[in-house]
Specification:
With about 280 residues, the protein is of the alpha/beta class. The chain has 2 domains: about 1-170, HUPs (Rossmann fold); about 180-270, Pantoate-beta-alanine ligase, C-terminal domain (Pantoate--beta-alanine Ligase, Chain: A,domain 2). The protein is about 40% helix and about 20% strand. The strands form 2 sheets. The chain has a 6-stranded parallel beta sheet with strand order 1-4-3-2-5-6, sandwiched between helices. Strands 7-8-9 form a 3-stranded antiparallel beta sheet, with helices on one face. Helix 7 crosses helix 8 and helix 10 runs antiparallel to helix 11. The longest helix has 16 residues, at about 120-135. It is globular. The structure holds pantoate. Pantoate binds near residues 25, 53, 56, 126 and 127. Pantoate binds near residues 56, 123, 127 and 148.
Length: about 280
């Protein structure tokens, strides 16, 4: 496995006709490894990047506390069969101030965007840069970040990147908690409470399937969060998969998602289910 810190070395090395790319911020878990394994299987050359992108953090504390585990990450990538890892410094990625703004319109204002202003601009910027550096044919993302998937889809279509996007199902712990690099920050006690998030999504789905309206579903589940001693809810919404806008009526023939973000033990966790 080759590890490069510079853009030029990375570009010079990657000449294959079939490049599968998995951008990450490190602190890799089974969810990331499943993306890498797919990229290894489906492409001649598999490339991962590890870069904790400062422009997508609106909260400096969150950036400072983001777990950094480079040695373990490289080890895991090598074991998964990854061919190339790009590990740039902040200076390599942003030699000057990042002033470019990509406006995603309404898509960046709802859900995550409402609570993390500027987040998707930072994601759009870094993913564009990484796509130009790696020049992949396919890129792999996890559906836990459902809105990020929609943003990147918009980016690739509107800027004609010509990259096939592969969105992969959320990988969960046996108790249902979605895998996330942030999970390691939970104390053992609060980690026990964490599956409540996935249960809240399943509860929402159940209510909708039983004819409860989206608004009433949101209300009932929000009340369950508010009654829970450990959670502070940011949002819980029933949305159309197509545009992530809240829906008035649930139609089983239309792809729907229930999406949530909540704080537990000072850690912000997100999750969703699609059905
Ligand atoms: O999902 C992530 O880990 C990041 O948002 C990404 C896509 C690597 C961009 O920094």
């Amino acid at each position: 496995m080759k590890v490069f810190e510079s853009i030029i070395e990375t570009q010079n090395y990657i000449k294959s006709h079939s490049v599968g790319f998995v951008p990450t911020m490190g602190a890799l878990h089974e969810g990331h490894i499943s993306l890498i394994s797919r990229a290894v299987k489906e492409n001649e050359l598999s490339v991962a990047s590890i870069f904790v992108n400062p422009t997508q953090f609106n909260n400096p504390d969150d950036l400072a506390k983001y777990p950094r585990t480079l040695e373990t990450d490289l080890d895991r990538l090598e074991k998964a069969g990854c061919d190339v890892v790009f590990v740039p410094s902040v200076r390599e990625m942003y030699p000057g101030p990042a002033v470019l703004k990509i406006d995603f319109g309404r898509l960046e204002q709802i859900l995550e965007g409402a609570f993390r202003p500027g987040h998707f601009n930072g994601v759009g910027l870094v993913v564009s840069k990484l796509f130009h550096i790696v020049r992949p044919h396919r890129a792999y993302f996890g559906q836990k970040d459902i809105q990020q998937c929609a943003i990147i889809n918009r980016l690739v279509n509107d800027l004609s990147f010509g990259i096939e996007l592969v969105f992969c199902e959320t990988v969960r712990e046996p108790d249902g908690l979605a895998m996330s690099s942030r999970n390691v920050r939970l104390s053992p006690e609060k980690r026990q409470a964490a599956p409540f998030i996935y249960q809240s999504l399943l509860q929402g789905k159940e209510l909708l399937l039983n004819g409860v309206s989206p608004a009433e579903t949101e209300r009932q589940v929000a009340a369950a969060y508010n009654g829970h001693p450990d959670f502070t809810l940011e949002y819980y919404e029933v949305v159309a998969f197509e545009n992530l806008e809240r829906i008035q009526h649930y139609d089983p023939s239309v792809k729907t998602a229930v999406v949530t973000a909540a704080h537990l033990d000072g850690v912000r966790l997100i999750d969703n289910i699609i059905f």
